[in-house]
């Protein structure tokens, strides 16, 4: 076998580049590989996308089994491509786009039924798919429609109809009078209604832009509740132990009340005496300070006591004071 140095470097470079490209393709597109991929790819036809986007979840009975990989237009309908793993999809399976959160996030729900498996090359037909009603989109459309209405013209139209049917039967005139009053009310509240719908649109847009934060908040709350549920036994044991401790303390006090009452009474007497002689105690502590300092100085040089006896000999009778350095004296 020849070494790499003996081989053609151009051939080695080409082969190495092909191998690196194949490894990179396998790493970044392993989910699309037929054996080690992320599952089976199916398609479904819908009348509209209803806000479904790639990377949305695919669920069966509330459990995530895959994700949406593509949402595209196929003539007069929407073709949704999704990948499913570890789940059976029957040949009469129905698909439904559902609302995941109140902020408008969607997911694809599958209801697997049928005698045989669904053919991945045959999309789930439009007859077996449904889409949700999006409240946010409805509010946005209502705001746009309300802004385009000429309320003054509408009021004039209702008044003209009321005047035209003035000689009609009573119930017809009553209905038209009500319509005329309604039109006047709408015309008088046109600015307020427009502001209300505009604010509703702003709120819905804000909530939609903050969907990730709300989802994290809900997930964190779920984690907290789950941890509390896991610690439920420990918390119950703690509360039960505290209750038993309180019961034992109550019993101890009840059983020793005859002994505790005199002891507490004597303790109260002692504290009263100490409180009454607080000034004497303070003065005693002040006087004890210099005394103990002198005792410490006298006995602090070794295993003897340093002292001075005044007038013990004739030469040290007057003045009776300790000799200073350089003076004679006895001790």
UniProtKB/TrEMBL annotation:
Residues 39-112 form the Mce/MlaD domain. Residues 123-301 form the Mammalian cell entry C-terminal domain. It comes from the Bacteria. InterPro entries: Mce, Mce/MlaD, Mce_C, MlaD_Phospholipid_Transporter. One of its GO terms (cellular component) is extracellular region. Pfam families: Mce4_CUP1, MlaD. NCBIfam families: Mtu_fam_mce (TIGR00996). This is ABC transporter substrate-binding protein.
């Amino acid at each position: 076998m020849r070494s790499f140095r003996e081989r053609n470097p151009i051939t080695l470079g080409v082969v190495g580049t092909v191998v690196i490209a194949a490894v990179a393709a396998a790493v970044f597109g392993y989910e699309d590989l037929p054996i080690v991929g992320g599952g089976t790819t199916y398609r479904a036809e819908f009348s509209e996308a209803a806000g479904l986007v790639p990377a949305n979840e695919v669920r069966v009975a509330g459990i995530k089994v895959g994700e949406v990989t593509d949402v595209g237009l196929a003539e007069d309908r929407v073709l949704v491509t999704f990948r499913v793993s570890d789940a059976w999809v029957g040949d009469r399976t129905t698909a439904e786009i559902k609302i995941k959160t109140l902020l408008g996030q969607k997911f694809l729900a599958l209801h697997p039924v049928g005698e045989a498996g669904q053919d991945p090359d045959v999309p789930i037909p439009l007859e077996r798919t449904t889409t949700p009603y999006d409240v946010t989109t409805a509010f946005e459309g209502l705001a746009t429609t309300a802004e385009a209405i000429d309320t003054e013209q509408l009021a004039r139209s209702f008044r003209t109809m009321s005047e035209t049917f003035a000689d009609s039967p009573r119930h017809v005139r009553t209905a038209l009078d009500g319509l005329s009053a309604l039109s006047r009310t709408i015309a008088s509240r046109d600015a307020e209604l427009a502001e209300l719908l505009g604010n509703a649109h702003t709120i819905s847009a804000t909530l939609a832009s903050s969907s990730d934060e709300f989802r994290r908040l809900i997930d964190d709350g779920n984690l907290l509740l789950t941890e509390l549920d896991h610690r439920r036994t420990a918390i119950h044991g703690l509360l039960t132990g505290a209750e038993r401790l309180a019961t034992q303390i109550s019993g101890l006090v009840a059983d020793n009340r005859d002994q505790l009452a005199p002891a507490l009474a004597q303790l109260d007497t002692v504290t009263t005496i100490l409180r009454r002689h607080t000034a004497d105690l303070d003065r005693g502590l002040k006087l004890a300070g210099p005394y103990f300092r002198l005792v410490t100085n006298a006995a602090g040089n070794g295993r003897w006591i340093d002292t001075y006896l005044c007038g013990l000999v004739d030469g040290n009778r007057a003045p009776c004071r300790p000799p200073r350095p350089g003076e004679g004296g006895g001790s």
